[in-house]
Amino acid sequence: MERKKFIKACGFACLGGGALAISMLEGCSGSKIIAGTIDHSDLVVPETVFVHGNSFHKYVVVQHAQLKYPVCVYRFRETEYTALLMRCTHQGAELQVFGDRLECPAHGSQFSDKGQVKNGPADTNLRAFPVTVKNNQIYISLK
Ligand code: FES
């Protein structure tokens, strides 16, 4: 291979790899993933998981070994949270979180931070769980 063609080919390969790495980092950099605990039929996380320096995380992703899909918990204010099952209502793929929206990597459906369908092919809102806060703990009812 000629030197010029070799350098050009390497340059494109590096650009491609760099773009992929950045895109992967963007996809997960804003997500705080934590392990919740189960208390009876509630998934429980401490309120402090939202603390981020002098402000708060907009959302956290909560996992537990007994859950097939994680739960994305959005914090709107001190006592207002939304807990959404990260299962696409189209064909069940696990969703990814991008700020105030959840996206399906399978066919592109998008949902709001309240679980409402924003773009199909999904036509059903996400499953949302009731949330209560007491004693600095967030209880997500999985009933
Ligand atoms: S499974 Fe999510 S859009 Fe199809």
What does it look like?
By secondary structure, the chain is an alpha+beta fold. It is built from 1 helix and 15 strands. Strand 2 and strand 3 (42-46) form a beta hairpin.
Q: Which stretches are low in confidence, meaning pLDDT under 50 for 5 or more residues running? A: 6-29
How many helices? The count is 1
Largest sheet: 5 strands, mixed
- Within the largest sheet, what's the order of strands? 1-6-7-8-13
Which helices and strands occur, and which strands form pairs?
Elements: H1 3-29, E1 33-35, E2 37-39, E3 42-46, E4 51-52, E5 55-56, E6 59-63, E7 71-77, E8 80-85, E9 96-98, E10 101-103, E11 110-112, E12 117-119, E13 128-129, E14 131-134, E15 137-141
Bound molecules: FE2/S2 (inorganic) cluster (FES).
Which keywords apply here?
19% helix; 143 residues; five-stranded mixed β-sheet; four-stranded antiparallel β-sheet; alpha+beta; 39% strand; 15 strands; globular
Summarize the structure in short.
This protein is an alpha+beta fold and 143 residues long. The chain has one helix at residues 3-29, and strands at residues 33-35, 37-39, 42-46, 51-52, 55-56, 59-63, 71-77, 80-85, 96-98, 101-103, 110-112, 117-119, 128-129, 131-134, 137-141.
